[in-house]
Design brief:
The complex is a heterodimer of chains A (233) and B (231). Chain A is an all-alpha fold. Chain A is built from 11 helices and no strands. The radius of gyration of chain A is 20 Å and the shape is globular. The relative contact order of chain B is 0.13. The chains are: A mainly alpha (233), B mainly alpha (231).
């Protein structure tokens, strides 16, 4: 039996506590943000979290930094939850159809997502955007399979990314129609080079549910109740 | 004689005020393009324009107001340029295709503009689509004539605005191949429901050359940037 050196143990405990506190701040920020939108200030967040102002600054230097962390976390949670149900399609075109539709449905049911994205500075073509990572991979597989025409990797990824961003932004301003996600995905598949019939078929297939892990902020705050729910405004 | 002075002074003051406002807008465009559009850049705009913080607020009450001033002026200039180039094109599909090609090629030729639009990002998506003010009517006409399929217009417009935004961001970040703008437009036309064979001639049509007027914001800001680079 190995016994951990006390200083290792202490730093491990400290790191765990730190990440727990950070999570609490993010959770509080998400709740306040859902209530107050762009008017959210640091005072609201620390009041909600029951923390001192000083300790806030141990985690985030500005409210912009907090917001960026929040957007990144929520973004990653959604994508990580959607990806497994996308990956289980064998056909790359169906993967794109499913991934895009689920993302757009998530955007429709969780309009705060668009509000976050709009508040971030220049998120558009940022290669570090996690959505762009997933979409780029799916486009690459579709191109390799010969299912898409000559659209090319760059143009294909940019088009999908643009559609998701601008749908998110539109959803933040006014609720999206329930038919929006499928109609948009259908047009995107045509852009990628699929014939209209194929695009129509792939975007009419039944969509699976996806599950967020219990520790996900979106689940803990109860702000996202799956993509079949009505938009939370 | 005394009448003349009283006429003269407010006019001079108004002119001076307008010049100062222009200087702030030009400077802001450069700073935004360089540093992003957050409120934290106001001190930099103030310093670069050579005015005091106090007099800045005589012209703009907030960062948002300044940002709106820059973007309104730019999108007005772009609407005018593009509309002058494509307004007379008879065929709706050719008009839509040429308008979008003009927009992206113009951004590719004017990196300063692309950098500003990319920095403004989603915040200005609404104003940016104002640069394509005539697009909804043109798309509707195309749908009516059976050139495009009948996808709901808001969806089509979001798709075009989003593709445009990401494309502008790409262009702002570095060199993109010469055919990148046309490839984006080709993909958009396919999304609109056009067949490949119908798209090819639209993309091969001659591209009108757009030249910003010497007194436009874009030209003035570019001159200011060149001046800075020369120092």
């Amino acid at each position: 039996m190995t016994i951990e050196a006390p200083e290792n143990h202490r730093s491990r405990v400290a790191a765990a506590r730190r990440s727990k506190t950070r999570l609490r701040l993010l959770e509080s920020a998400l709740l306040v943000f859902a209530r107050k939108g762009g008017q959210t200030v640091i005072d609201d967040v620390i009041a909600q979290a029951g923390m001192a102002r000083g300790s806030f600054y141990n985690y985030f230097r500005t409210s912009e930094e907090l917001l960026a962390a929040l957007a990144a976390t929520v973004n990653e949670e959604l994508l990580q939850a959607i990806d497994p149900v996308v990956q289980c399609c064998a056909d790359p075109a169906e993967r794109i159809a499913r991934g895009t539709r689920l993302l757009l449905h998530a955007v429709r049911c969780f309009p705060l997502y668009g509000t976050f994205l709009a508040l971030l500075s220049a998120p558009a073509g940022d290669p570090s955007q996690p959505a762009s990572r997933f979409l780029a991979r799916d486009v690459a597989q579709g191109l390799a399979s010969g299912r898409f025409g000559d659209i090319g990797q760059r143009v294909g990824t940019d088009l999908l990314m643009g559609a998701v961003l601008s749908a998110a932004f539109a959803a933040a301003r006014a609720p999206l129609d329930a038919s929006y996600p499928d109609a948009s995905a259908r047009a995107l598949l045509r852009a990628l080079g699929l014939p209209e019939g194929e695009a129509a078929r792939l975007t009419a297939l039944p969509l699976p549910d996806f599950e967020l892990p219990p520790q996900a902020l979106l689940r803990r705050t109860g702000l996202f109740d799956g993509w079949r729910a009505a938009p939370m405004l | 004689m005394s009448d003349k002075t009283s006429d003269h002074r407010p006019r001079v003051a108004a002119e001076r005020r307008e010049r100062m406002r222009q200087r702030l807008v030009e400077t802001a465009m450069l700073v935004f393009a360089d540093k992003g559009v957050g409120a934290s850049v106001i001190p930099e705009v103030v310093a670069a324009a050579g005015v005091s913080q106090g007099s800045f607020y005589n012209y703009f009450r907030s960062n948002e107001e300044l940002l709106a001033a820059v973007s309104d002026e730019l999108s007005g200039e772009m609407v005018q340029l593009i509309e002058a180039a494509v307004g007379d094109i008879e065929d709706a599909a050719l008009r839509v295709a040429t308008g979008m090609r003009c927009y992206l090629h113009f951004a590719r030729a004017h990196r300063l503009l692309a950098r500003f639009l990319a920095a403004a990002g989603l915040r200005l998506l609404a104003q940016q689509s104002a640069a394509l003010r005539y697009l909804p009517a043109d798309l509707e006409e195309g749908q009516r004539r059976g050139l495009f399929d009948t996808s709901p217009l808001p969806i089509v417009l979001d798709l075009i605005a989003g593709a445009g935004l990401v494309a502008i961001d790409r262009i702002a970040r570095g060199r993109v191949p010469k055919d990148y703008p046309d490839n984006i437009v080709g993909a958009i036309l396919r999304a609109l429901g056009m067949e490949r064979a119908a798209i090819a001639p639209l993309l091969a049509a001659p591209l009108p050359k757009l030249k910003p007027a010497a007194d436009s914001l874009l030209a003035r800001a570019q001159a200011r940037l060149d001046e800075q680079a020369a120092v």
